[in-house]
Amino acid sequence: MGFGIGDLFWIFLLLSSLQPLWQKRQIEYRRLRALEEFQQQRKSRVILLIHRQESISLLGIPLSRYITIEDSEQILRAIRLTPPDVPIDLILHTPGGLVLATEQIARALIRHSAKVTVFVPHYAMSGGTMLALAADEIVMDANAVLGPVDPQLGNYPAASILKVVKDKPIGEVDDQTVIMADMAGKAIQQVQRFVRTLLKDSMPQQKVSPENIEPIIEALTTGRVTHDYPITVEEATEMGLPITVGLPHSIYALMDLYPQPQGGRPSVQYIPMPYDGGRPGLPTPKGRPLEEPTQANS
C-alpha cells in the first residue's frame, strides 16, 4: 500500500516536531561530554552557572535570567556531593540575582575545604561578583568584568535613597522615603558585613591583604558608581582582588554550547578561524568553506 500526499504531510510534520527535541538532546550530550573532559583535566568538580537571556518561543518576549533559589538548591547539592579534598571550579556568566540565593551559594563555597576557583569568561555582575569574592582565585578573560554589589531597593540604589534624606530637610521628605532610607541603611550594612566575611575567609588561602579589605568594601558596596559599572581586570587587580588573567580554551568551548537564543536576524557574524588577511591556500576548519559565516552573540 502506497503513501498518499496526506500521509507524507503528516510524516513531514512528525519529523519536523521531533527535530528540535533531537537537537536539544544532541546539545545536552555535547555539554556533558565537554564538562566531563574539563573536570578530568582539572581534577575538580566543575559547576556552571550560566544565565542567557531567554525568549518565549511564540511571542518572542525577552526574559532576563538571574540567580534564583532553584540555582542555589542545585549548586548546594553539587557542593555537598563533592568530597572535601576535591577542588571546585565555578564557571560564572550572570548579571546577578536574589541576595538570599547568592549568599547561600557563597557561604557554601567558603566552607568547602579544598580550593575554589571562579572563572569569568565574560561578566559576573552584582551577585555574580559576590560569588567570585567567595573564591580563593578569580580567573578572568582579559576583557571580562565584575560589578559593584551595592544593594538595590526596587528600582533605586540604596545609596541614592540615603542621599535624598541626607541632602533634603527631613520635613520635606515623605514618610515612604524615610522608611526606604531606613531599609537602605540596613541593606548596605548587611552587604558590607557579608562581603567582609568573604574577604577575610579568603585571606588564609589567597592573597587579599588585610589593608585592602576595607577599601574593597568601600569600592563595591557604597554606590559611588552605578550598579552596572564594569570593573575591569585592571581595576579589580588594583583593588587587591586575587585575579588571574587567561582562561583555558575549554571554557570558551563550553560557552559555545550555551548560545544566546536567536529571536530573528543575527546581530554579529564572522568566519570562525584565525584572521589570515585574505591569503589563499590556508585550510578551513573541518572543510567548511570560507564563505559560510558563523553567528556569535554577546
UniProtKB/TrEMBL annotation:
<dbReference type="Pfam" id="PF01972">
    <property type="entry name" value="SDH_protease"/>
</dbReference>
<protein>
    <recommendedName>
        <fullName>ClpP class periplasmic serine protease</fullName>
    </recommendedName>
</protein>
<feature type="region of interest" description="Disordered">
    <location>
        <begin position="265"/>
        <end position="298"/>
    </location>
</feature>
<dbReference type="InterPro" id="IPR002825">
    <property type="entry name" value="Pept_S49_ser-pept_pro"/>
</dbReference>
<dbReference type="InterPro" id="IPR029045">
    <property type="entry name" value="ClpP/crotonase-like_dom_sf"/>
</dbReference>
